[in-house]
Structure formats: structure tokens, C-alpha cells
Amino acid sequence: EELATIFLPYPNSCKRIAPESFAPISIAWGMDNRVAAVRAINVTPQGTRIELRVPGGDICLHLALAALVAAGLDGIKNEIDPGPPAEGHLDLDETIPKITTDWSKLLDHFDDSAWIPQAMGKDFFELFGRIKRMEHQRIISTVIQEERDELIEMI
What we know:
mainly alpha
């Protein structure tokens, strides 16, 4: 989850991560499983590929690709076994960890990472983390129109 802030860069990014939406909520990989975070497709040898299904259209493509490549290279270098592919309806499987949709917690996972500064550089890590915390503070301190309307109704 330490890379989730890169793949889900805004609070609204997290809102599409919901059960029964074909957006992945499970931290798992699966063979042609659309609700897994990583979907492996192996219909033909020439068409074999993987999809990272977590990011939406609001990502910085270059940054997300760099993070994905860094994670893949780290997995190869350290011979990390991803385990068997997850099967079935992952949204309902309580044994599989889920992606948190609390943006503040995603920022905490990023900040707590020892791997990201090593893999992507300390300068990037510090600057990106600072920017995201500033964005978070601005967002949580902004009163949106719906909140104003609700308060006016109560008065």
C-alpha cells in the first residue's frame, strides 16, 4: 500500500475503489480476474500481459509507470513470490487484504515507507510527500457546498 498514494493521488481517486464496481479493492493478483489489483491475461503466448487495475485517469502516468517498474524490478531482484493467483469473487473474500480508501491512511503508508526513498530517490520521496500532505490539509480544511447546505437546513 505504500505506492497507493501514487496510484490513487487524490481523495476522489479513492472513491472509485468500491465493492462491486470492477475497480479492484483487493490487494491480490489473479488470472483474468477483473477485481484483482493486478490482472494477468494469458490467452496466447504473444498476448500475455499484466494490467495494474488500481490507477484511474487522474494519475501522473510517468510517475505511476516509474513506480510500477521500480516495484517490478525490486520483486525480481529480491525474488519476491507473489503467491498463487487469487480466484473467484475477491470483493467478498475476507481473507484477502483490501486497499484502504482513506486517503489520509494512504498518505501515512507512503510516509512510513523505507522502500520508496531507496527505489525512487529521497528527494522525490520528501517532495511528493510534502505536496500530498499540503493538498490533504487544504482539502480537509475546505467547507464544501453540501456541508453548508446541510448546516443551513439544520438551523
